[in-house]
Amino acid sequence: MNKRRRAISTDFRALSALSVLLILVALASTYSCSRQAANVVWLDELGPEYAISGWGEAQANKSIDGNPLTIAGQVYERGLGTHAEGMYRIKLDGKATQFSALVGIDDEIKGNERASVEFIVSARDKNNITQTLWKSGIIKAGQPAKEVNVSLDGLLYLDLIVSDTGDGSGYDHADWCEAKIEYRGTKPEPVKPYASQPYVLTPLPGPEPRINGAKVFGVRPGSPFMFTIPATGSRPMTFSAEGLPAGLKLDSSTGHITGVIVKAGTYNVKLTAKNSLGTAERNLRIEVGDKICLTPPMGWNSWNCWGCSVTDENVRQSARAMVEKGLINYGWTYINIDDCWHGERDPKTGEIRSNEKFSDMKALADYVHSLGLKIGLYTDCGPKTCAGYAGSEGHEEQDIMTYAKWGYDYVKIDWCYCEGKDPKVAYKLFGDAIKRAPRDIVFSICNWGRNNPWEWGESVGGNLWRTTGDITDTWSSMSRIGFGQAGLSKYAGPGHWNDPDMLVVGNVGWGPELHPARLTPDEQYTHISLWCLLAAPLLIGCPIEQIDDFTMGLLTNVEVLEVNQDPLGRQADRIVEGEGYQVWAKEMEDGSKAVGLFNLDAYDHKTIRVDFEALGLGGGSLRVRDLWRQKDLGTFDGHFEAEVAPHGVILIRILSQ
Ligand code: GLA
After folding, report:
1. What residues are annotated to the active site?
2. Gap between the Cα atoms of 80 and 150, Å rounded
3. Alpha carbon of 385 to ligand 1 centroid (Å)
4. What is the CATH topology of the domain spanning 298-571?
5. How far is the CA of 416 from the centre of ligand 1 (A)?
6. Which tens digits make up the pLDDT trace of 348-381?
7. Quick check: CB of 481 below 6 Å from ligand 1?
8. Does residue 120 sit in helix, strand or coil?
9. Model confidence band, residue 465 (pLDDT cutoffs 50, 70, 90)
10. Is 317 within 8 Å of 364 (Cβ atoms)?
11. Top-level CATH class of 210-288?
């Protein structure tokens, strides 16, 4: 071997040794990299309880209905079963590397073609900028799973969103299968949506007299008149009234005004309430004519709490508590029995009778009236009520006359077993009977918004009509219904109201078992503020006797309730629809505007601004009052802005100086 060849072979050996070394180093580094990247956390391990789900509760390794996760026939072991509108926020530390999942609509909803969702993966970076990482596009039922695999490099928060694609969330059972995050740093953590402890904003009423409630009241000539002067302040209190029309008398110690006015017309009455600390005055305009229910009805309904288990005693307890807890002093009036009071019809006369839980419907009405309150009940335009009791089909006139004979002041008429009927025709039968009844009966149409009742409800005699399906005590239900009222304001006015369903505050449960409404305190302020702005009927859905201080504060804020009861009867419009926030405004009789600044984000506080010009108020300097706190906030030039809690509201009134 010559020198050169030896050199080559030495070089070659050195080279091979180097290559082996390099390969080893490469292998080692691949190994260590893959070991670092091998940290994996599965979405189902992070906990389904942190998911915001538009319906039901998210489930780990199961569909929302509790079945094995299945998309287009393929069963997946792991993942999260959710429902649109859905959201899951995860905190990363900038060192997570990858998110992957297989997404789709669960097979359990087969046959319900309405289902359609979009899965969206977005994230926030170190500069607090949100970027969309991936969108599935619209996914329909039966479609195979779509794979998402995105890099999370440098990101701080990951949002897994399920949108209902704007067509409603019915049947949108959305599965995140085999969903996992790979990471190198701190283990990703789920973020809880923001929730404060209950806090009371409403100032307690003073001991001096203050007259509250509606400033206008409608009655038909010849109908029994009943109005309780709502007044806060320490008792004993003496009431008087100047200019009462002929036929009415006032009980000076209770403030109950009763009697019958024969002559149609407008009567301006000056009410006075007096106690040892002072005197309060307030004008009440009594309109005697065709129209009743000139401000949205305020009261209680048994359904959201007692459901079908409601008894005569439940009704009496809520009525009694309306007085004892003082809610009557703010204008709360109606005590309404929902489904499940009906018994069988009299076989001879066909007259409806109550079931064993309600021994005497007339005696119950007399009792409620004796408290200075009014009473309502429920029936259905079909052969059966929703809960299967006797409905009013074929007995429309007869039933209305029976209710009038018993002394009922309000009837809600449901739409179960009525498919195939023309609601206009079906409801007109009741409306016509109500016109002929010898007493005033508020007519509540409850056909869940079918066939746009806002377009014909008033013409068939309706005083209010449900615009949507049933509410439940979740943010997604309440906010979808409440903010979904946009565009309906032109149909509302004195005597005819859009009804976005009853209130879900306090203890609710639709059956004998109750639980505190599953809305955060801020969400409850939003609920009441929005319903007041919407000039919506306010029907409390919890047992009044169980109301705590927080709920009491929600229901007894005179300045907030004044927005609802304003005599002009306007419903608020959505003025601004921003990214995660909305501004709604309602014109008030005095020319001021009641304005709600709503933060729709579940996690973050937001500064929300309203320009006076957008409200039609010109660009000048205006006085702004915080209605929940009952405090002037000062004068503002051209605009007002405030920080609003997640899912919360700032409710203001903007007045000229
Ligand atoms: C329907 C109505 C509810 C309630 C129930 C009673 O669902 O929309 O408000 O009256 O029926 O069964």
Report:
1. 414, 470
2. 18
3. 9
4. TIM Barrel (3.20.20)
5. 9
6. 999 999 999 999 999 999 999 999 999 999 999 9
7. no
8. strand
9. very high
10. no
11. mainly beta
